[in-house]
Specification:
Layout (H helix, E strand, L loop, with lengths): L1 H9 L3 H4 L16 H13 L4 E6 L3 H4 L2 H11 L3 H12 L2 E3 L2 E3 L12 H18 L3 E5 L2 E6 L2 H19 L9 E3 L9 E3 L7 E3 L1 H14 L8 H19 L5 H23 L2 H10 L4 H8 L5 H4 L3 H6 L2 H6 L11
Antiparallel strand pairs: 1-5, 1-6, 2-3, 4-5, 7-8
Amino acid sequence: MLLASFSAGWGLGADRFEGFPSEHSYGFRPGRSQHQAISAAQAYLAEGHRWVVDLDLEKFFDRVNHDLLMGRLAKKVADKRVLRVIRAFFNAGVMENGLVGPTDEGTPQGGPLSPLLSNVVLDDLDRELERRGLRFVRYADDCNVYVCSERAGRRVMEGLKRFLISKLKLKVNEEKGAVARPWARKFLGFSFTTDRTPKRRIAPKAIERFKERVRELAGRRRNLNVEQTTKALAVYLRGWIGYFGFCETPSVLRDLDGWIRRRLRCLIWQHWKKPRTRYAELRKRGVKDMGARGAAGSPHGAWPMSKHGSLNTALPNAFFNSLGLPTMAPVRA
């Protein structure tokens, strides 16, 4: 909202710069999205370019050279007032431990202008990659180049390192950047299968982060009842599904669906606490007497019990659906 307001008021809208971005640049541009960037990468793999040069720019937003960036902006923006405002934006400083310190380089990560300015700086990288005839996809400072062999990838990586240092005063993060198989890397939260026709899959790290967040939202320490917990989970899940539902591996979504409901059964079992309460709740929900007695008196912990047949009977998927918990996996025909 702030970026749009500032851009419109000062003539810094994306259309002002639409003359220069490369067709391979997808970040923070009108009509372009992360999903389009992922699809473009997938198409390169399908063509046979099955090695990726993963350029991870070291502390990109902290390292952008102010003079270099202002020089590029001056070629695009005629209004000197706009340039003065942007320079003031750079020189405003950052607050650490209650003290404001100067900023000699970099743009504030998360700042309203930083996404647009990242495209201004990295347009030179796009032009260099195009000049070399390389297949690449860039989303802001996340750039992948696709080649046909490891040898070609290493040659490209070394050449781009030299270019970035000499022309843009930027460095590739040696620990995170790599020449590797695309299915061993992640791009915008996704990875790919090794199939002849590669499919989009959710990157393992994205799944780990997802599970960590679900554990936080459905954790006993939050001291919320099942309705409140489900409501909080539903908000998170809808946003997550809206993005990662773009994957082409529905079995993963079905597994996560089952895992989430198991987490909720575990939480409810913990809330019931005493064997007498557990027995009464199970019976109330249609579990037979012997099954309810066996489950209520079990010495096993809440997580193993969350797979118990009696809990699945008492708390079926339909129960969670009735509370508004969205289903992640596509419905089978």
